[in-house]
Amino acid sequence: MDIGTYGYPTPAVKKIESYYDVPEGVDIRGRYDAEFAKILTKDALKFVADLQREFRNHIKYALECRREAKKKYNEGALPEFDPATRYIREQEWVCAPVPPAVADRKVEITGPVDRKMVINALNSGAKVFMADFEDALSPGWENLMRGQVNLKDAVAGTISLHDKARNRVYKLNDQTAKLFVRPRGWHLPEAHILIDGEPATGCLVDFGLYFYHNHSAFRRTQGAGFGPFFYLPKMEHSREAKIWNSVFEKAEDVVGIERGSIRATVLIETLPAVFQMNEILYELKEHSVGLNCGRWDYIFSYVKTFQAHPDRLLPDRVQVGMTQHFMKSYSDLLIRTCHRRGVHAMGGMAAQIPIKDDPVANEAALELVRKDKLREVKAGHDGTWAAHPGLIPACMEIFNNNMGNASNQIDTVKREDAANLTEQDLLQIPIGTRTMEGLRLNTRVGIQYLAAWLSGSGCVPLYNLMEDAATAEISRVQNWQWLKYGVELDEDGLGEKVNKDLFDRVVEEEMARIEKEVGTVKFEKGMYKAACKIFTRQCTSPTLDDFLTLDAYNYIVVHHAKEGPVKALN
């Protein structure tokens, strides 16, 4: 593997025999495949390229604004409600009415876009399946393009899979969940597609290819005249929502469908965004179908936002739940904001997965899920997320029992009490302890998740929880924060300070534990050592990288050249 200018590996380059038919200015460096060519048609690529050319400067400006905001927070400022947009928060206005096809979203299942997952999730009994090109997917070329093929087949209703090992055929039921698609965040490039010599914006590739091929069939078969439907991740400011709104308008105009056909739910999963919820809905007024509590990323963002604030250190990540005051305030304000504006307020993820070999532990885990979902529905949420089909009946039962025949609680639970929540409520420092076990768990989960991600899996079962990039991010930034400020541990590590020596010892011991848990053969074959190197470097870096996956992405890019020499991976 060659090392590039910045110490990252340069993409491997392999020669290919066939090539995609591309419009002017577009260069595809990903492997040629006849199935992928049905997605990467000249017209679809022109649609993506037009989006890129029209919006790339807006995107660059939005990302520059993020950097400016980070600089401000690092100099001691705190996020706050913007005085300039007070009129948006105080005026009475509502978003466009919710499309009837997605009025009922009591339980939504999420997962990556691999073929078996898509079929099982659509058949799961959930109201919605959020097909994920973002945190639950390792964004290698094969995963992304096969995902587009799978979603096209799903929208057409023709998707099937013959599992030869199990001698079982998977296909869609008559009744399926409604499909939402989550593209990547603004910050992630698509290095396999160059437009005018620079990498395409990942989310415009994800959105553009899916929308172009599926808008007509989706509106006919799933959306009852509306759609397609999307989830939008990682936003920090309403200016980013404004770009999405413009993208939607252009897409609708290009294919000739009514304004407001496309609908999107925005994940409120960054701390700055909680102060912009009204403004985000306002920018997407014609295209909004709610907000969602992306709680794991929200915790990650709290640490990242306050990376230069030693007075705001988090306790162990397992202690930062929705009963912490700053988390409860965020959820309550989201419900109040959404219902005031006439759209869904979606709850957070139940990450537990069934424990098949331990009925007692399984029932205890299910009881935790029930308690969490009961809290959500009583607070006023209109629906919730589950990571595994096995949780759907329990989640559905809680929401049905508490909502009766109603599709949602938009008109019945207004949460006017949350109007009094202040900036201090949203920023209150969480209480709890920082322990050696917390440091160890962060390290163990972070390394194992990253090893799976480098091997092509973005959604990983670890210790009876379904982990995605968000939980790995919490692990990384918390380790970084504790190391930077020499945190003194409580309980099992009483009096020990987190420093480089201690961390090196923990990494060594946790790597030995991982090898013991997964077995030496799998350990040696897997990407654990590479993952350990990246994770350790990120945790001990003098400056905190914005995203773990942005750094690690360089390790999964493989370029295929039309002609010329071949660079092979070592």
From TrEMBL:
Q: Name one GO biological process term.
A: tricarboxylic acid cycle
Q: What PROSITE patterns does the record point to?
A: MALATE_SYNTHASE
Compartments where found:
Glyoxysome
Q: Which reaction does it catalyse?
A: glyoxylate + acetyl-CoA + H2O = (S)-malate + CoA + H(+)
Q: Which residues form the active site?
A: 182, 468
Specify the Malate synthase TIM barrel domain's residue ranges: 178-429
Q: Which UniProt keywords apply?
A: Acyltransferase, Glyoxylate bypass, Glyoxysome, Peroxisome, Transferase, Tricarboxylic acid cycle
User: Which GO molecular function entries does the Swiss-Prot or TrEMBL record give?
Assistant: malate synthase activity
All copies of the Malate synthase N-terminal domain together span 24-86
Pfam families the UniProt entry points to:
MS_C, MS_N, MS_TIM-barrel
Gene3D superfamilies linked to this entry: Malate synthase, domain 3, Malate synthase, domain III
Any single GO CC term annotated in Swiss-Prot or TrEMBL for this entry: glyoxysome
Q: Provide the top EC class.
A: transferase
From what superkingdom does this record's organism come?
Answer: Eukaryota
| Listed EC numbers | 2.3.3.9
Report the pathway entry.
Answer: Carbohydrate metabolism; glyoxylate cycle; (S)-malate from isocitrate: step 2/2
Q: Which residue numbers delimit the Malate synthase C-terminal domain?
A: 434-555
Q: Which PANTHER family match?
A: MALATE SYNTHASE, MALATE SYNTHASE 1-RELATED
Q: Which family does it belong to?
A: Belongs to the malate synthase family.
Q: What is this protein called?
A: Malate synthase
Please give the organism: Glycine soja (Wild soybean)
